[in-house]
Amino acid sequence: MEPGILFRIILVGNAGVGKSCILQRYLEKGFDDKYEVTIGVEFGTKQIKIGNKPIKVQIWDTAGQENYKSITRSFYKRAHGIVLMYDVTDKTSFDDLENWLKDIKDYANDGVDIALAGNQVDLSDCQDNCREVTYVQGYEMKLKNNFCAYHETSAKTGQNVNELFQELCCVLYKKHQTKGLGKNQESFVSLSSSADPRKKYKKCCK
């Protein structure tokens, strides 16, 4: 039987878009609306299956502030997949995706798989109609950059959170089965030879 596989995924995007809350929701099915800024990098792990194959997903939640970008950049090379996140109620966070993409191009491995997430979609249906980025704008961004997945998500309700990570992990697993990573990329990690990192993450950002 094929040994377990470890996928490393990092969450990137502006501060306050909800990266920590998405991580918490995915790991524990919970939500805490208290804003707590991530300092540096935090991570959590989750066991999933694709087909009957055991997969361990290690998710790194990175700080979005400019003064922590040097720390975030040091993790790009180790990532098999990236979740690029913005807030659908904050057009600036969407516009700044271009800057994050430049960092990914400069520091991540060639051909790294990227999933796009428009978070805080629960707020877009509020009485004040505070949505600033449409679904179509996000979808066009996905097509323009050939992202492997795109979902509008809500850490509060759980909308599309599992679907986001499952779709990205399926893409990673297919790559692992067929051709592995690009020639310049670190191989996927076999759990039979990899230490099991302790679970650690902050509760929660916006």
From TrEMBL:
Pfam families: Ras
InterPro entries according to UniProt: P-loop_NTPase (IPR027417), Rab_GTPases_membrane_traffic (IPR050209), Small_GTP-bd (IPR005225), Small_GTPase (IPR001806)
PROSITE patterns found in the cross-reference section: RAB, RAS, RHO
Keyword annotations from UniProtKB, A to Z: GTP-binding, Lipoprotein, Nucleotide-binding
Gene3D superfamilies registered for this protein in UniProt: P-loop containing nucleotide triphosphate hydrolases
GO molecular function, one term: GTP binding
Family per record: Belongs to the small GTPase superfamily. Rab family.
Protein name (record): Uncharacterized protein
